[in-house]
Specification:
- Helix content is 38%, strand content 18%.
- With 277 residues, it is α/β, with parallel strands linked by helices.
- The chain has one domain: 3-Layer(aba) Sandwich (Rossmann fold).
- A nine-stranded mixed β-sheet has the order 1-2-5-4-3-6-7-9-8, sandwiched between helices.
- Helix 6 links the parallel strand 6 and strand 7 (182-191).
């Protein structure tokens, strides 16, 4: 990816990753999150990461839940890429990219587009760069905080949050920030994350508390957040995949389709244009 927007003193390049200079070197979230993922059997070797979302070998042979999870992500990836191919994007940001498996597939699918893979988890970013970065010059890994980093004049045709929004406490603050980074007709895409009705929130929070306590990481409770459909009110959003429809519920059982919605939010510029018609 061209680095013309990252030439100021806010970033440095190390290990072929762009680093936000004023971001703390170590953070407690990364440590706890990485330990939890290891306990969940979600820390993978480079060989496995390279093949994701397809799992090679017997890594998940004794874990049907994780096997199903990656089957679901395989279907989500296909839907996302097919949608983007109709739009022919030139600039994409994946926020919360982790080890970069999804950004890698975007780089392969859109070789003429620039893919920016952003996270604050240095451990996973280093793995992503190690596995994918040297192969795809249109893919750049960046360790940055989306709220405090300065991306200059960079605008994105698409911003993707895949299995990510639950790690942001204020969804409205996040969406408002991302809308500022969109090109005039850009879109934010949220997938592989749950949304709840207001009366479901308490139950969801209790289940998460029980889960983290059983695994021995109760401190994750304050770092894992549950968002409701009500938080999307006021935005120009559309549900591209509704997991609650009768047919989609059936497909979930037959084809391991996603139990989570796929939501897109249009840019404010587009919303303004629609209102002026």
């Amino acid at each position: 990816m061209t680095t013309q927007y990252f030439k100021d003193s806010s970033f440095l390049r190390k290990n072929k990753i762009l680093y936000q200079k004023d971001l703390e070197r170590l953070n407690s979230f990364e440590y706890i999150y990485t330990q939890l993922r290891r306990k969940e059997n979600r820390v993978y070797t480079d060989e496995i990461v390279e093949s994701l979302p397809v799992i090679k070998g017997n890594h998940l042979s004794n874990d049907p839940f994780l096997k199903k999870e990656w089957q679901i992500r395989t279907r989500s990836l296909k839907k996302l890429v097919n949608y983007f191919k109709k739009k022919k994007p030139m600039s994409l940001l994946e926020l919360g990219c982790g080890n970069g498996w999804l950004s890698h597939h975007l780089a392969v699918s859109f070789p003429h587009g620039n893919i920016l893979a952003m996270d604050i988890n240095e451990t996973e970013l280093l793995q992503g760069q190690r596995v994918f970065g040297r192969l795809y010059p249109n893919l750049t890994f960046i360790r940055a905080d989306i709220f405090s980093c300065d991306l200059g004049n960079q605008k994105f045709d698409f911003i993707i949050l895949a299995g990510t929004i639950q790690y942001f406490p204020d969804l409205n603050e996040l969406i408002d920030k991302l809308l500022q980074l969109l090109s005039p007709y850009g879109e934010v895409h949220i997938l592989d994350s749950p949304f709840y009705s207001p009366n479901e929130l308490d139950g969801a929070r209790r289940r998460s508390e029980d889960y983290f306590r059983e695994l021995g990481y109760p401190e994750m409770n304050s770092r894992y957040h549950h968002h409701s459909w009500k938080e999307l009110e006021g935005y120009n959003y559309k549900i591209l995949y509704n997991p609650f429809s009768f047919l989609n519920k059936l497909y979930q059982k037959i084809n391991n389709d996603s139990p989570f919605p796929w939501v897109t939010i249009k840019s404010k510029a587009l919303l303004h244009d629609l209102k002026s018609l």
